[in-house]
Design brief:
Layout lengths: L1 H15 L13 E5 L2 E6 L1 H12 L2 H5 L3 E10 L2 E11 L5 E5 L4 E4 L6
Antiparallel strand pairs: 1-2, 3-4, 4-5, 5-6
């Protein structure tokens, strides 16, 4: 009987909680005010993305069709990747030419 009353009490307490509307960070809005005027309403996720784009000069990136760079990636004191990477700036195609002569090619649908 004690267990039944304890269980009933727990269900009663949990059942009486009000359902709170949870706002995900993507849907939460930030409003900027300038002299009482609303400038822009954006979510924190959008603001975060815009700040990264500005810091990395997205306009210059998008003005190019293809980018290429050498990479020497090491973890734990071991070399994991030494290659030349060539990619379309919209990331729809990628080619990795490793120093050992092997290649990885992504054409937007399939990896070879």
């Amino acid at each position: 009987m004690k267990h039944f009353l304890l269980l009933l009490s727990v269900f009663t307490i949990l059942g009486c909680k009000e359902n709170q509307k949870k706002v995900s960070p993507e849907n939460e809005k930030i409003t900027e005010f300038d002299r009482g005027q609303v400038n822009e309403v954006i979510s924190p996720a959008v603001a975060f993305a815009q700040n990264i784009e500005a810091a990395h000069n997205i306009k210059a990136w998008k003005s190019k069709k293809v980018v290429s760079f050498d990479i020497d990636l090491s973890f734990g004191g071991e070399q994991r990747l030494m290659a030349k990477i060539t990619s379309l700036t919209n990331s729809t195609a990628l080619r990795v030419d490793k120093k050992d002569g092997s290649q990885l090619i992504y054409n937007g649908k399939v990896v070879f």
